[in-house]
Amino acid sequence: MTPRYALFGCNPLAIEVAWRLSMVKQSFVLLDRDPALVALAGEEGLLAEHIDYTDDDALRAVGIGGHIEGVFCLLGEDSENVFLAISARALDPNLRIVAVCQSPAAAAKLLAAGADKVVDPYEISGARVHELIERPEVVELMEQTVFGLQDLNIAEVTIPAGSWLHGVRLSQLRRHMVQNVILLGVVDLERGKDLIFSTRGIDHNLDHQDVLVVIGPSQDVAAFKAIIESAAPPHSAA
Amino acid sequence: MPFAQMLVRLAYRQQASASYGRIKGFFRKLLTDPRSHRRVVFDSCMILLVLTSVTLLIYEVRHPLGHWADIFEGFVVAVFVTEYLLRLWLFNDSHKILIEHWEKAELMGLPFRPGPALWAILRRKLAYVTSPMAIIDLLAILPSYRPLRFLRLFLLFRLLKLFRYTRSLNAFGQVLVEKRFELMTLSLFVGSVVLIATVAIYLFEADAPDSKVQTLMDALYWAVITVTTVGYGDIVPLTPEGRVVAMVLVFAGIGVISFATSIVVMAFHEKMRELHDNRVFAAVERQSDTTIVCGYGRIGQVVAERLAEAGDDFVIVDKSEAAVALARKQGYLAVAGDSTDGALLANLGLGNQAKRVLCLTHDDVSNVYITLTARQAAPDILIISRANKAETVRKLAQAGASHVVRPYEVVARMASEFIGQPVAFDALYDVVTRAAGVHLEPLAVHPGDWLEKQRVGEIDFTAHRLILFGVIRPHASPGADGHARYDMVGRHFYFNPGPDLLLRPGDILMLIGYQASLGQFRDLTGRRRRHVP
User: Looking at the partner chain, which of A5, A74, A142 has a beta carbon nearest the beta carbon of B432?
Assistant: First the structure.
């Protein structure tokens, strides 16, 4: 099976991401410059390869610019991650790149280097600790439902070309939402690329390529997707 | 031996008496307890009293004051005497000594002799009377005895009394005491240099024509003025030999000054940390529910920032001086020290007013140790620990952590979510970190609340610009069918419940919305509660 994702860095963080990916049955490869770390990851039973990521040919050989869809820059140094993000972005403009940063100042640099998303581990963990103090219910709820193994998922649905929703108002769609899902927000391309939360109360004019973000049990989410993607509006109006 | 028996009986009665203990405790808090609020008030009053009395006594030197000044002086002396006696009383518990002696005699089967016991008590009291502070206290009382004019000098001891009431002045005294070896060496050196210079200048200058050095006193005065590099110039050496002595003495003086300065500076530098720590302990003591943040790395910084934003009380402990300096720069309370040290944590209120301990150091071993220490000292406290390795999670739980946060896991979850669904991920990230102003907040249903016995369908969440994410209901409440239900520890979570779900006290509504909408809704439910019986 050709891997779809490349994880750079064979450190504990990368191994954690690897386990997470294997849980959702995604194929990936772990890559690092340090042969000792590669061997260690191999011992964990993960597919790991030795690579010099400063060499563009080596990156191409791994499949960046080819079958690799996403890259995780999980190396220990911000400078390494910036270099990796620049190299990868140059090879493939459509690649999805996630990077971690050690210092907050590096986040902007990583974004400039071409990363789509920068995750600050300390920021998130600190926020988590504070949430545990302030709102333990919220953390517990998210841990056990959305992040956990129970069947409650967050999903995004892009309105495809040819969907009946093209040119339809959000309030009209709501009338057909009989599934047990919550519409968290909409990315309305007329209004920009950011997600607009439903709580703003805007009655969006939906077009194709707009994205709807919903939370619900997988069965309901699938049913919701089917409505969105069908060409004709469903008959059963609630 | 009725006298001895009476003594022992009295001692036991004191030991058993609750009111005696209470009274002594009250005065101890007032006079000696370094942490008590009452002492701060008492000290401030005493400082005011000392300054007023000294001002009056100085003014009185040239301007006779009336009858009222005498009364005031009498009052001051009365206060001072009372304070002196109280301190003498508080210094130790005499009845304990008596009881100890008696019990020892009983144990050995010997007859109890009151003599040695009383002598031991007297020795303890004498130890207090001869302590420097007690002597100052005593001397401060004297200046009011008018007939002896020279006693006016002891007025200065009233000013010295201020040492007792201000902690920073006290620290200055402590510095001098701690550095007594160095200071002794220095004074020995200065003494011998001055002695040699005095004798030398006297020998060379005393019989020179036009010499100002007439007596040995003149010589000593000149030597002291020169060695301290003051050099008034009223007495100057005239002979070449005398001038050589002066030159040598000037250099010795520079040495003496720099040595003295370095001793004091160094001592203060060492003392500064301790002083600062004491200030932090005192500040923490005044807080009502403290969060102890162990480790001020990046995670600690984020947490501290958020706690400060929320207006919560917290104190930071970190081994590294640099981290503590950083925290202090932010205006946070911080102590440099090893947070595995139970005594340090106790000083920060663990086991008392501390409500939470956050173990956020880089080292899993330390985190486990801190967790264990904290749990033993305070069984009900909330402990949140950081685990870097997956194996540590179980160990932390065993050590007593209420929650464990694993940074790598959190990041991995976020990162893997992002790959599949970036927009959904952003939404989740915003809600979880509250970055975009959208929060997921709990709202509890209280008995007698407006929300109680409402059906979910009757509340127009959309009009309030809110999304009802779901309802958390404890297992103790009756369950509801026909809704998507998820299990949590001890509770059920009803996701997006249908309009017919009846809200009960103990339920928690999980609402998604902007801060303003949430606040408004919260106010509304609170207001209606008051109106509806």
Answer: A142
Token digits of residue B211: 């010499």
Contact B411 A16 (CB under 8 A): yes
Q: Which CATH superfamily is domain B421-531 in?
A: Regulator of K+ conductance, C-terminal domain (3.30.70.1450)
A with B: how many residue pairs have Cβ under 8 Å apart?
Answer: 213
Reported ipTM: the value is 0.78
Beta strand B334-336 pairing with B290-294: unpaired
Structure tokens at B272: 């500064």
Domain count, chain A: 2
The last residue of a domain, from among A93, A119, A145: A119
- Are A164 and A110 within one domain? no
Query: With bands split at pLDDT 50, 70 and 90, how would you rate the model's confidence at B144?
Result: low
Q: CATH number for the domain including A182?
A: 3.30.70.1450
Cα(B295)–Cα(B337) distance, rounded to whole angstroms? 10
Determine, yes or no, domain membership for A206: yes
Domain ranges in chain B with CATH number 1.10.287.70: 180-269
In the three-class reduction of DSSP (H, G, I as helix; E, B as strand; rest coil), residue B403 is classed as strand
Give the range among B143-152, B415-424, B449-458 with minimum mean pLDDT: B143-152
Give the Cα separation of A129 and A150 in Å (integer): 23
User: In this structure, is residue A199 part of a structural domain?
Assistant: yes
Q: What is the pLDDT of residues B34-68, one digit of tens each?
A: 667 788 888 888 888 888 888 887 887 788 777 88
Compute the distance between CA of residue B417 and CA of residue B409 in angstroms, rounded to an integer. 12
**pLDDT tens digits for range A59-95:** 888 888 888 888 999 988 899 999 999 999 999 888 8
Yes or no, beta carbons of A182 and B496 under 8 Å apart: yes
Return the HEC string of chain A.
Answer: CCCCEEEECCCHHHHHHHHHHHHCCCCEEEEECCHHHHHHHHHCCCCEEECCCCCHHHHHHHCCCCCCCEEEECCCCHHHHHHHHHHHHHHCCCCEEEEECCCCHHHHHHHHCCCCEEECHHHHHHHHHHHHHHCHHHHHHHHHCCCCCCCCEEEEEECCCCCCCCCCEHHHHHHCCCCCCEEEEEECHHHCCCCEEHHHCCCCECCCCCEEEEEECHHHHHHHHHHHHCCCCCCCCC
The residue-averaged pLDDT of B339-359 equals 85
**Which residues does chain B have within 8 Å of residue A155's beta carbon, measured at their own beta carbons?**
421, 424
The span from the first CA to the last CA of chain B, in angstroms, equals 76
Sole residue written with tokens 């750079």:
A8
Same domain, A181 and A98: no
**Which of the residues B296, B358, B386, B408 would you substitute to probe the A interface, choosing the one with the greatest number of A C-beta atoms within 10 Å?**
B408
**Cα of A12 vs its chain's centroid, Å:** 20
What are the residues facing A71 on neighbouring strands?
A6, A97
Q: What is the mean pLDDT of chain A?
A: 84
B215 phi and psi, to 5 degrees?
A: -125, 170
- Dihedral sign computed on CA atoms, order B29, B33, B39, B42: positive
Range B180-269: architecture per CATH:
Orthogonal Bundle (1.10)
Q: State both tokens at A187.
A: 């990315």
What is the percent of chain B where pLDDT is above 70? 93
Q: Residue A115 maps to which CATH number?
A: 3.40.50.720
Q: Tell me the fold of B288-409.
A: Rossmann fold (3.40.50)
Mean pLDDT, consecutive 10-residue segments, chain A of 238 residues? 83 86 84 87 85 88 87 90 92 89 89 88 86 82 73 83 84 81 84 80 83 86 86 64
Shortest distance between the Cα of A126 and any Cα of chain B, in A, equals 5
Is some CB atom of chain B closer than 8 A to the CB atom of A142? yes
Which structure tokens are listed for B114?
Answer: 């009151």
